[in-house]
Amino acid sequence: MEYTEKDMFGIEGEVAVLTGAAGGIGQEIAAAMAALGAKVALADLNREKLEESVGQITKNGGEAMGIVTDVTNKKSVEEMAKAVYDKHGKIDILVNCAGIAHLQDAVDFEEDIWDKVMAVNVKGTLLPCQVVGRYMLEKEKGRIVNISSVRGMQGRARDLAYAPSKGAVDQLTRSLAIEWAKKNINVNAVAPIFTLTDINREMLQQKETMDWVMSRMPKGRLSMPSYLTGPVIFLCGKSSEFITGQVVYVDGGWTCA
């Protein structure tokens, strides 16, 4: 059977849910998917930024809807997924981008902050996978991409919660991939290095931190949110049919240096 480039790499007409999509990596991926003809649903707690992001996508001719969602609350996630399914009759793609970070000395790391990071990064990935996964299992078709981090396999001082949370995301990705593989649902993760988003901006403005990052970055520059769009969209298309349970490092060579 012959395939066209559109068959192999296109996502036109696919319905995609993206969490944490009011800004940063999630917003960038949502905009790219919409530009390629996907119908995107942006889920985020920040109503104002969510409306801005949806407005920008629709202004550029894309089809988008925004749903205020707390990814740590199952009922909220269920209501979001139902709204998308009721409108489109299917959900083909889920991209989990919601995430937070906090740096603090280990002996002083606050318990409530640990709980919050774990809730957003781990539970906030699990719940959308569970809820949207039910719709995918019914149709035996789906692509899930979780945004992880190189911290999922590399520790870092003062990174007591974020690094373990991303390690959990990696293992969650692998476990779901094994369980759902025969149902034609591929589950993968994309793991970036330091990317110019709000979650990293303050830290990267510190000269000592920036000098350390640049000293071991083979590419010699920071990652940008747009660098994640290609790998994520590839994992959502037909060309990645036999790729599941993988963590793809989009890190400018960081993990091999």
Automatic annotation (TrEMBL):
SUPFAM superfamilies: NAD(P)-binding Rossmann-fold domains
CDD domains, A to Z: SDR_c
Name of a matching Pfam family: adh_short_C2
Keyword Ribonucleoprotein found: no
Domain Ketoreductase: 14-193
Key words, A-Z: Oxidoreductase
Keyword Oxidoreductase: yes
Record-stated family: Belongs to the short-chain dehydrogenases/reductases (SDR) family.
NCBIfam families named among the record's database cross-references: PRK07231.1
Protein name: SDR family oxidoreductase
